[in-house]
Specification:
The protein has a two-stranded parallel ribbon with strand order 1-2. Helices cover 39% and strands 8% of the residues. It is mainly alpha-helical and 125 residues long. It is globular, with a radius of gyration of 15 Å.
Length: 125
């Protein structure tokens, strides 16, 4: 379930989408400027996000494992499914800033008993 963007790479690979996708004017980089967030909200960000969350929560009980790729947003969504999950971190903000900042929430998500892989405990549970 692509949370940012229209999921075109997944569609080209034949991956079935479980919910709606959409491109926002600033494509999830609204942390750089508050005006970007306002424009994304005006373009339907909140409604799209709610629809995507409902799709994930509706589909996740049928999954043995949730795989999340991205940043804290997808990590939090994976955690909220209450299913075992793996996170592949690829935060563009860290790349843009030239440093990795896990913040306060991400370390908790990575060290959750539901998370099969983390920076803090690489053992397979």
């Amino acid at each position: 379930m692509p949370i940012v963007g229209d999921g075109a790479p997944y569609a080209r690979s034949g991956v079935r989408m479980i919910g709606p996708t959409g491109k926002m004017p600033f494509g999830g980089i609204f942390y750089m400027n508050p005006i970007f967030l306002v424009k994304d909200i005006g373009a339907g960000l909140i409604a799209l996000t709610c629809q995507q969350l409902r799709a994930v929560w509706r589909h996740s009980p049928h999954c043995d494992l949730v795989v999340a790729t991205g940043d804290i947003v997808v990590a939090a969504i994976a955690h909220l499914t209450d299913r075992p999950y793996i996170i592949f971190l690829s935060a563009h903000s860290s790349y843009d800033q030239g440093r990795v900042n896990l913040g306060l929430i991400l370390p908790r998500l990575l060290s959750s008993p539901s998370c099969f892989s983390s920076l803090f405990d690489a053992r397979i549970r």
